[in-house]
Amino acid sequence: MLDTQSLLVQTRELIRLANEAYKRYQKGREEGAEHDFFKVVKPAADQCEQAVKSWLSDSLAYVKEYHPKYIYEEQLRSVEENLNEIVMQSYFCKIHKKRFKDLTESVLYTLKNMEDDIQKGDRD
């Protein structure tokens, strides 16, 4: 049996990471901050990658077990790819502002749908 509470906690952690990355990107564009790759960027990217990998595995199991409306495997896989990208890009600010915003909104949309579905908890 899938632990939906654990999945909810993981989902909220990814929402936090996405929001944090967005704020860092905004601040970096304004201030032009430089970050040490090995001391700051790589550990943050690695942490995100691990968090997303664990979440993805549980999310895929959740979708298979509960068949939530409007949440599909492809979206979950996109969250993995896009969240890793925005966390990494948030340190460099080399990505076009509109693309960064679109990726972030896409990630947050899917994560919030997932969060809402888990909280709703009305399973067929």
From TrEMBL:
Gene3D superfamilies: YppE-like. It comes from the Bacteria. This is DUF1798 family protein. It comes from Bacillus sonorensis. The lineage of its organism: Bacteria, Bacillati, Bacillota, Bacilli, Bacillales.
